[in-house]
Amino acid sequence: MKFNLGDTITLDQYIHEALYNAKHGYYMNKNPFGKDGDYITAPNISVMFSEMIAIWIISYWKNLGSPKNFNLIELGAGNGEMMKQMIESFQKFPDFESSCNVNILEKSNFLKKIQKLKLKNKKIRWLKDLYQLDRLPGIFVANEFFDALPVKQFIKKDKLWYEKNVKFTQKKMKFVDISFNMKQFEKKIGFDISNDQNIIEFSPLAMDYLKTISNNIKNSSGGILIIDYGYVGKKIKNTLRAISNHKFTDVLHNFGKSDITHNINFNLISKIAKEFGLKSSKVTTQKKFLLKLGILERAEILSKNLSFSKKTDIYFRIKRLIDESSMGELFKVMLIAEKNTNFQIGF
Fold this sequence. Notes:
By secondary structure, the protein is α/β, with parallel strands linked by helices. It has a single domain (8-337), classed as 3-Layer(aba) Sandwich (Rossmann fold). The protein is built from 14 helices and 17 strands. It has helices spanning 11-20, 26-29, 42-45, 47-63, 81-90, 94-99, 109-118, 182-189, 204-220, 266-275, 286-293, 295-303, 308-322, 327-330, and strands spanning 8-10, 70-75, 100-105, 124-127, 138-143, 152-157, 160-168, 173-179, 199-202, 222-231, 241-244, 247-249, 259-261, 264-265, 279-280, 284-285, 331-337. The strands form three sheets. Strands 2, 3, 4, 5, 10, 14, 15, 16 and 17 form a nine-stranded mixed beta sheet that branches.
């Protein structure tokens, strides 16, 4: 999309161009992960995070009846670190490994090249879209996926709704609020999102993904594990922010050079899942999820007979994952599955 002076576009259109524009998009030209990037994700902090997710996936596969042929799909695989470590864990479970078809959905060709380099000699299929999936049971994993999708913002002023837009002016870009027909929009998406709200963050693309995934789960069984920045509660908040060099920055500053993200409202995700005929688990924190899966016990095994400095490093990394002032509380975990599912591991 080409912008001209005076153009006005919706916030989600702006975010899409800033992140995914083929030429200038943030994710299309840069590796944002690690010390030299703009942020660090859990799989890059400790291998134990990926190991715990792998154990959870194997347990859920057993709960599905250990299907002899099923799809594992990672949504947005980043630099490929989590999938690499999970595959290495899967190798210890030959029955599971022989049954598992590994898939990655990745929009960025730039990140895809990094993933393919890291995952060379691994049997993986990269998907252009989820419609490429075979009609098999599917376990979807979304770690920091939904927070990176473009989001709309609606603001209520004097009982009227407005949509946040971005206007390109001579000096710089600026936000403008344009009147919006919320009732018509709710009719289009099929459910009410504005009741008792003063601000709404809503991603049509996230809803599209959830619809496709829900249809896959209903038709072939499975589930989706969501791990993301987020919060619970019926009131939706303004959580939009941009990150560059591990610091917050202006959303309208440095177009295509900073990550734009938002916190997931898990209550809204649960509501969408219900609309699509599925049910969601209770939301738990990353801390509780990893502790219930046995991350401390795994650390004990790994640190046995190691030097003090190496033991310290292992537990320091775990602290970053589970500390309530760090990722432990900020990140939430949810399972969306069929209505008759009663899977409790990790929750």
